[in-house]
Amino acid sequence: MTLADQLIIAPVVIPAVVAPLTLLAMPRRRGLAVGLSLAGCVAMLAAAVALFGLVQDNAIRSYALGGWPAPFGIVLVLDRLSAAMLVLSSALAVVVLLHATLTAADRKGWHFHPLFHFQLLGLNGAFLTGDLFNLFVFFEVLLIASYGLMLHGHGAARLKAAVGYVVVNIVGSALFLIALGVLYGVTGTLNMADLARRIALSGAADEGMLRIAGVLLMTVFALKAAIVPLHLWLPRTYVATMPVVAALFAILTKVGVYAMIRIVPLLFGEDAGALAWMPSPWLFPAAVMTAVIGFAGVFVAQAMREQAAFALVGSTGTLVLAVSCWSQATMAAALFYLVHATLAGAALFLVADVTMRRRGRYDDAAVPSPRFSGQQATGLLFLASSIAAVGLPPLSGFIGKLFILQTTAPTSNWIILWAVVLGTTLIGGIGFARTGSILFWKASPIGADPVDSPNRSNADLIAPMILIGLLAALTIGAGWATAQAQATAAQIFAPQRYIDAVLGSLLR
User: What pLDDT sits at residue 449?
Assistant: First the structure.
């Protein structure tokens, strides 16, 4: 194994080391702890970019921890999909942590930075693991960290929402464990590559239990992705938590979608015989309802954070519409839109945070207020982020939705899919336009109380501007990004290559 191959473990090791170091340094040397935290995020982004460059040769690499070969030991697997998700999560982490530091949001509690890096440890591990049990373990790591981050800043409403969030995820974890138990009982393994091989060779006697396990897995992933009817936890949770935390949480729903993309073509693809694509017949109608309910929520929401939360639900529905077609072409469109939707959702929450800080007692509610510091700049950022979230030109959301429409045209459900995508775009656009006009352009009533927030520096505008810049870069580089998405989709729909890369020595 070359030094470059050993870099695969870096996105897991870096946050695992930085988290305890920041915990130890925070009580006495806060500046050092913050510096370590920022340096850790930058190092993780550099490692992710290096790994992304490594997969450009189209090879799939595996890393056996402790030298134990698959399927007996813990294995990390690097391919185009995992590398792209690592870059996305690392880039988002750098921007969000920068905003938390510049706005002093990280000072609302002692443990923000350690929890932040434990969250990244769970995310990166979930993207890299080649074992279903370790996927469960990394899910639990990121969930436990998210419980702490959600409560960051305290507050009764936050605590109440956190209780519901914890209960929902405990149920999801229990279902995940049951599914793993069924799979292990039937196949004797939880290594993804080995599972794919054994499911393809399974007989009719095992078909019923494997169907149960597949449905349970898809239910868990749908819960993580906040797909209707398992979406009710998300708006309440994301509105209650601090916007800077919700911006990081923008990628959490995409972890559920990632798990679907990783598991279904590999375990239940064309080679699975009677079990081919069986866990997901309900996925398309659920995606339709998710997109409609999400953007309907944007239309009726009365505050920016509510709109951002429902926009995340709606964008996940649009994403899963493309995923549910289970074709290479639509998967490429879904991957392009996944990157866009994550950045756009995070941008909405950061703009909401800037607005709340500058409007004082008026907060982010959709009511007119007297003029406040930086109103024009904040309004322009809201305009750009809402255009991105809805999918209007000129930003990458428009390209992503066109890509989805183009690739789904040959499918049997294309009329419904097109109607949903175009209709929700219109509804979401009207909702954001109404809120923007009230917040930034409508005159306040005569005699309204003045804004009680003092003039602020423009440091809180930096992170939202970076995210808008990344969306603009994705738009300009849409040709290159599309080619990357198509190459990634080709790997996803060639599961034998994944199996050979992980179990090569065992199969020979």
Answer: 64
DSSP, collapsed to helix, strand or coil, labels residue 77 as strand
User: pLDDT tens, 79-93?
Assistant: 999 999 999 999 999
Q: For 304-321, what is the mean pLDDT? A: 96
DSSP state of 444: P
Say how many C-beta atoms besides its own lie within 10 A of residue 257's C-beta. 23
Q: Contact, 222 vs 289, CB < 8 A?
A: no
**Rama region for 365: left / alpha / beta (φ>0; ψ in -120 to 50; rest):** beta
Distance CA 428, CA 426 (A): 6
> Terminal CA-to-CA distance of the chain, rounded, Å?
19
Neighbour count for residue 71 (Cβ, 10 Å): 21
Tell me the HSE value of 302 on the side-chain side, using a 13 A CA sphere. 2
Give the chain's length.
Answer: 508
Quick one: average pLDDT of 257-279? Answer: 89
Question: Are residues 158 and 151 in contact, defined by beta-carbon separation less than 8 angstroms?
Answer: yes
How far apart CA 169 and CA 150 sit, in angstroms, is 14
Distance (Å, rounded) from C-alpha 37 to C-alpha 234? 27
Mind listing the pLDDT tens digit for each residue in 63-82?
988 778 778 888 999 999 99
How many angstroms separate the CA atoms of 304 and 210, rounded? 43
Distance CA 311, CA 124 (A): 24
φ and ψ at residue 386, rounded to 5 degrees: -70, -35
Exposure letters 375-389 (e unless 16+ CB within 10 A, then b): beebbebbbbbbbbb
Give how far the C-alpha of residue 211 lies from the chain's centroid of Cα atoms, to the nearest Å: 27
In percent, how much of the chain has pLDDT > 70? 96
Which tokens hold the place of 316? 């996940």
φ/ψ bin of 98: left (φ > 0), alpha (ψ from -120 to 50), beta (otherwise): alpha
Cβ–Cβ under 8 Å, residues 208 and 279: no
**Rounded Cα distance, 425 and 372, in Å:** 30
Q: What is the pLDDT of residue 450?
A: 64
The mean pLDDT value for 438-446 works out to: 76
